[in-house]
Amino acid sequence: MRLSENQAATVVQMWVSRVRADADKTGMLVKRDGQYQPVTWGEIGREIRRAAAVLVSLGVEPGDRVSLLSKNRYEWVIADAAIQMARAVNVPIHASLSGPQVSYQIIDSGSKVVILSGPDQTEKLEDEAAKFDDSLKFVSFDPCPAPLGQFKVSLLSDLTAKVDDKVAEKVEQEGNDLVKPDDLATIIYTSGTTGEPKGAMLTQSNLTSNTFAMMSTFEQLEDDVRLSWLPLSHIFARTCDLYTWVASGIVMALADSPEASIGNCQEVHPTLINGVPYFFDKLQRFLISQNMHTIPGALQGMLGGRARMCGSGGAPLADHTHLFYKEQGVFISQGYGLTETSPTISTGRLSDTKVGTVGRLLPGVQVKITEEGEICTKGPHVMRGYWKRPDATAEVIQDGWFHTGDIGEIDSEGYLKITGRKKELIVTNAGKNIAPINLEALLCHDPLIAQALVIGDRRNYLTALIVPNPEPLMAAIKELEIPVKSVAEALEDHQVRELYAAHIAQRLADVSHYEQVQKFKLLAQPFTVDNQQMTLKLSLRRKVIEAAYANEIEAMYAPAPVATAAK
User: Fold this and answer.
1) Angle, nearest 10°, between helix axes 165-178 and 74-85?
2) pTM score of the predicted model
3) Which of 99, 400, 404, 522 is least enclosed, having the fewest CB within 10 Å?
4) Cα separation, 205 vs 56, whole angstroms
5) To the nearest 10°, the Cα dihedral for 164, 166, 171, 173?
6) 182-203 tens-digit pLDDT
7) Mean of the pLDDT values across residues 341-351?
């Protein structure tokens, strides 16, 4: 095992000690000219300190926020470390978010600098540029010839090329010496039950304590290779892929994309792979569809032939998938946590796992179950609070205990099991947290939609039950000259469905792709108090509605029929 003798107190110390100890050893496999090429820890460290010096030259001071907007790439890793080495706070923004969603996080966090990937992100921000303070600075990984509104976008490599090595070394030393465990390291925006993003504030010690607690449960070997494909803007990948890699000193490769991850397995032959249930389920379904699940070693072959351990998180892993991997001889560990807990609270171990549970608690992590069954946790992993949201912080952190909103139990053997969700938050199979109330509010702003219920928990995509608004619908039908005479007749008319599809797409135009409603069902009856589908406060009773329309919901998730050739 290649672990540091002394556990670093900050992420910056973790980086500096690793680079100094293993400067000549391979740290990453980086895709260049279509091939994975080895990059040493020394090379990585040099790029980090030069990028940190650039941020300081741009006026970034201790505690300032720097937004990072990019898909996974080598430069993302460099930028994250550089921001913290410059004693600033990383605000990672999910690359898939829309322009308005991105600008909200930049403005709300008060970021001084925005680091982005290139034109792919500047284009979405063109209509948002007028909202930004004139002092904001933009830096890009890829060339952006066109300005972003009134802002010039500087190329990071041009800026780092001008940095004096002695200046960079001074910035590195100051970061190593002056960043403290209690310093704010990152602000990660996460959806709440109302749909308003809240910035979870995680400190240096939040990140390092969770990193080393995870490492204590899983031995990482000298020849391990980690393949990382989950978004580094999420805390799951950030802690459990990125920081455990730095702390252990093994080799890591970034997948070209989530879709290319299986192909990348054939190139780098990883031993460690983290993923979400959707990934593991999709691979299982593929093997079964190709009748390969009966072939010994087929699953292992798909993963590159050397997979020693897979980690699953972000959403519940189906028991049948867990058992499938076990039968195939590939160990899969299911863990549990939240953005606010850095993230891991519990996890299965190689020698200690139990299907149907999320494992045992990490060292240093405390959990209690309230009388209502809610899981509460306390320890060094719990966030400082929500950025500029003291009231929201006080709601979830009481006497040091963070209230997760999840319902669960700890069995007689000490395994934690999640049995439900207190908060109304959809978690898709891909691990995306989605606030349905926000989407429903957007949909119900449409004059043709009286009510809407968005579905998608533990599913691959979102669907919706839509109650039409009769009078505006009939007016639209008349105007468009659609040949139907009643609302009942309209519900099954293909032109009416196309009309609703267009209106739904328009109402959700400013949300991310995974928040889009893929399929919908028009309903003849509204949700009411009388049919017990609404509370007296006129809130939707989700479980009641989903039970009443279970057949309609399942039909929206049924596989498309396979076309057969005519005989």
Assistant:
1) 70
2) 0.85
3) 400
4) 23
5) 160
6) 999 999 998 644 457 899 999 9
7) 95
Instruction: Round to whole Å and give the CA distance between 379 and 342.
Output: 11
Pairing of strands 401-410, 397-398: antiparallel
pLDDT at 272 (0 to 100): 98
CB-count burial class (<10 Å; 0-12, 13-18, 19+) for 421 = middle
> What are 408's two structure tokens?
């669960």
pLDDT in tens, 274-307: 999 889 988 998 898 889 999 999 999 999 999 9
Structural domains for the chain = 39-180 (3.40.50.980), 214-427 (3.40.50.12780), 435-557 (3.30.300.30)
Q: How far is CA 115 from the centre of its chain?
A: 19
Long-range contacts formed by 522-530: CB under 8 A, 24+ apart? 522/466, 522/467, 522/468, 522/490, 522/491, 522/496, 522/497, 523/465, 523/466, 523/467, 523/468, 523/491, 523/549, 524/487, 524/488, 524/491, 525/467, 526/450, 526/451, 526/467, 527/451, 527/453, 527/467
pLDDT digits (tens, 9 = 90+) for 124-147: 999 999 999 999 999 999 999 999
Place of tokens 């890591």: 252
- Cα-Cα-Cα-Cα dihedral sign, residues 347, 224, 27, 29: negative
Determine if residue 304 is left, alpha or beta; phi over 0 gives left, psi from -120 to 50 gives alpha, anything else beta.
left
Of the candidate ranges 403-417, 439-453, 549-563, the one whose mean pLDDT is the lowest: 549-563
Could you give the residue ranges of the DSSP H alpha helices within 482-541? 487-490, 494-507
Q: Read off the pLDDT band of 3 (50, 70, 90).
A: very low
| All residues at 6 or more sequence positions from 267 whose CB lies less than 8 Å from its CB, including other chains | 36, 253, 304
Contacts (Cβ under 8 Å, ≥6 apart) of 117: 69, 70, 71, 73, 75, 95, 140, 141, 142
d(CA 38, CA 28): 6
343 upstream amide cis, omega within 30 of 0 = yes
273 phi/psi in degrees, rounded to 5: -140, 120
Tokens of residue 34, six digits: 């279509």
Flag whether pLDDT at 536 surpasses 80: no
517, β-bridge pairs: 462
| Residue of 274, 271, 370 lying closest to 72 (CA atoms) | 274
Q: Are 374 and 407 in contact (CB under 8 A)?
A: yes
Measured from the Cβ of residue 133, the count of other Cβ atoms closer than 10 Å reads 10
Between the CA of residue 206 and those of 47, 60, 100, 172, what are the distances in Å?
A: 25, 23, 30, 21
The burial class, CB within 10 Å (0-12 / 13-18 / 19+), for 79 is buried
pLDDT at 194: 46
Q: How many helices (H) and strands (E) does the chain have?
A: 21, 27
| Residues 14-30 pLDDT 10s | 999 999 999 999 999 99
User: Does the pLDDT of residue 352 top 90, yes or no?
Assistant: no
Question: How many Cβ atoms are within 10 Å of 167's Cβ, its own excluded?
Answer: 15
